[in-house]
Every structure is written in structure tokens, then in C-alpha cells.
Amino acid sequence: MPLLTQQIQDEDDQDSLVASLDNVRNLSTILKHATCFATKNGIKVTVENAKCVQANTLTALRMCYQGYGYPLRLFLEEGGVVTVCKINTQDPEDTLDFDFCSTNVINKIILQSEGLREAFSELDMMSEVLQITMSLDKPYFRLSTFGNAGSSHLDYPKDSDLMEAFHCNQIQVNRYKISLLKPSTKALVLSCKVSIRTDNRGFLSSQYMIRNEDGQICFVEYYCCPDEEVPESES
Amino acid sequence: MRFRAKIVDGACLNHFTRISNMIAKLAKTCTLRISPDKLNFILCDKLANGGVSMWCELEQENFFNEFQMEGVSAENNEIYLELTSENLSRALKTAQNARALKIKLTNKHFPCLTVSVEMLSMSSSSRIVTHDIPIKVIPRKLWKDLQEPVVPDPDVSIYLPVLKTMKSVVEKMKNISNHLVIEANLDGELNLKIETELVCVTTHFKDLGNPPLASESTHQDRNMEHMAEVHIDIRKLLQFLAGQQVNPTKALCNIVNNKMVHFDLLHEDVSLQYFIPALS
Asked: ipTM above 0.85?
């Protein structure tokens, strides 16, 4: 996603950071308490919850920041009406490094989001965990919950129309606290595709591809660590 | 005391219904004042309302093809009634495609405003739906508190932006703070500002236009860009904006610096004035 820093820099020499975005609606639904990392390639906004979940969005936004001690200024314009937000900044806490790298990825699938949306909205909230199973043969990709009323399993076969890519090297069964995954539902609802990867420690990386009205694409990434060790034989 | 009135025109009926819906959104309980030429919906600035007052006025002959009233006495030819606004708007919901609407003052065990709606019917016989709205007759000694508010000389008078836009901005701001500053100048600029420890948000509306100044002389050396402002309760502003389902024919905002904001609207031929005082 191109940043308009070239143009803007001439007007705002004072500011260390200036960036611009046409449509902030998607960003606003995802952000709560955020740490911003600005690089030449774009802006990463990181949100953490209980140090176990991390969500990153790569987008550009019209923000001006003069430096340490100054508030972050956001400029929003719609229909000739300009809204200016000055947000007081805080000293950032170190964000967790999930140490999730592609070389350690064992299983990876890419699904069309419409297939997952209904599943996620119907997840049994009585269940403390969501269990994700990825296997070389049936059920291939299974979401399971264990609630008071019973357990439920949702299977996605690898040859389903919704499954865009299915790469499974070894059977993995991992459980994640549902409360930690719930925030990712917002990104799921907005997205068209999702990639789910698990590494050798059972850490989950889910990436949501969101395409907005103008055709611009942004990604929201979630990391979550597994809840507990689950023996591989359990399914 | 007597009152009976009838509306047969569909457009008038719909307009009257819209006004009643607006009043129901603006004031839970209000006073209906009936006089030979006008109907007024009044909310006076008691503490219970948080100091907000409202004065809505319509010319009866623009709505009713029959209108007869007899006030409390010959010298005081007016009727003041207190009612729950929603009761009237609910009764009028029935009147959407009615042939006629009749309103009259009755006494059915207790004083009522009886609204009868004659429904359009496939067959020749007509159906009538009647609503008895309980009311309280307001005694003469309390009338002085229910007079048209005196509009003080504003520091700034400015035309409002599209109310729907204003409402969506204020709705979002309400999540951040209970207080809001509304400020405007004679250069067509109006700002809505909220401020908390963590964040300051200001929305700027430009090129709104100002009505011609009342007296040129006093304002000649006025600084056009100087803002007049009021701190108000955001919920009161939101309640006012939420009541405006349709964009008014004319919408004016008058600010008396640090004292109050006065909204002066015209919905076709019905005028609405709404006063929000400054937070103390």
C-alpha cells in the first residue's frame, strides 16, 4: 500500500511522521489500545491483549507526530467536514515477540472467510477453548468446542470450494482460549480470505486479508499461543 | 373549556404526525397550549429537564379545516394541557392513511384529549379508531411559567450544517465525553469540541453562512473570526438532534457566550425553538 509521504513532507517539515489514508473505517473497527510502528513500507499498528494475542494491521493513515511528548494528531475528512483528533501518547510497553517465523510453520491453510464467519459466530461460548485440528487425512481441518451441553465439531474437507490452499505436514491438535480468539472475529467479518498457520510450538498465526471499497488491501494478523499441551492422539 | 378540531387533508395529517413524533423525541412530558390561532408544544426550563426549554409553534389554520376552542375564560381564551408526548404520537401512528382525524377535549372519568381516526375502508362503512389520551389541565396561576422564552441577543448567529451529519458526529463524541463545547463565529465557522485527559477531538464545519446582523453599528468593529462558545451537556444536544428526522427548511444556531445555545428551526411552517443552557 503506497504511502503519500513524498507529497506531504513538503508541507509538514516539523513532523517526524506524516501518513495518509482514504478510508479509515476498517482501521477504526479493529483498533483499541495501540502501539504504532512506522517504517518506510507502511505503518504497523499493534494491539495486545493479555500478552498472548497480537494483532497487526498494515495500512496508511493521515497521522502527524512531532516527536516525543507531543500528541498524535489524526485528521479525518468526510464531505468537507474536517475532524481533528489529538491523542496524548504514552510511553510504549515492549510488545511481545511471538517469535513466529515461516521456517517453523508446520501446517498452513488458506480459507475463504465466508466459510468461517458463520462458524465463528456460532461458536459455543460455553466452551473455554477452541480446538483446531489439522490432519493429513480426515477431518483435514476441524474446529471443535467443548461446552456444557456437549462438544461440537466443524469439519472443512481439503477439497472443499472454500479451501484455497491446504498444506499439512503433520497432524496437529491445538487448543486456544476462546476469549483470546474472539477479538479476531471483527477482522474475520471484514475479510475476504484468511490464512491459518501453526508452528512447531502450536502457536497460531491467522492473517486476514481485507479489501475495502476502493479495492485497497490491508492485512490484519493475529498471533495466539496454545492453551495447553494436547496429546496428538486426541481428536 | 372546549376544544374540537379536524384534519382531512392527507399532507397536513402527515405533517402533524411528523411534528408529534419530533416532540415525543424531544420531551417526555410537555404542555400543549391551545389558543384561537395557534397550537404550541412547550417545555419550560425546570430543573427536571436539566434547564432545557422548548417552544414549538404552529398556525392552526395551516393544518385543521375545522377548529373550535373556548378557553378558560373570555379574557384568558387559552387552554394549557399537560400530556405525555408519546401518547399523542402513538395515537397518530394509526392516522397514516386516514380519511380524517378529529381531536377533542373530553372528560371520560378523567380529562382526556380524544383522538379519533377515521380509517379508509374497502367497504362503504368506515372504521374509527379512538384514542383517549389522559391529560392534566394546567391551572391559570401556572401559565406565567409557560410563556414564550425571551431570546437574548446572541453573540453569534449562524446557520447549522446538515443535521444528520451533526448528529452522527455528536453520537460518536458522546462515547468519549459528557461535555461538549459548541462554538461559532461570524465567518460561517462552527466547531464541536470535546476534551478528556487522553484525547481532544474537534470537528470543523465551514462555509455555513451567517444571517444578516440585526444592528450594523454595534457589530461594525467585531472580529469576524472571534468564536462565541458554550459548554453544554452532550446528551441534551444529541437529544435535540435525534428529534430532527427530516432536515428543516431553515436552521439557525444562536450562541450567547458561556450562557446558552438557542436553536431556531423551521419545519416548513412549524417553528421550533430549543434552548440548551451552559453547564454550571
From this structure: no
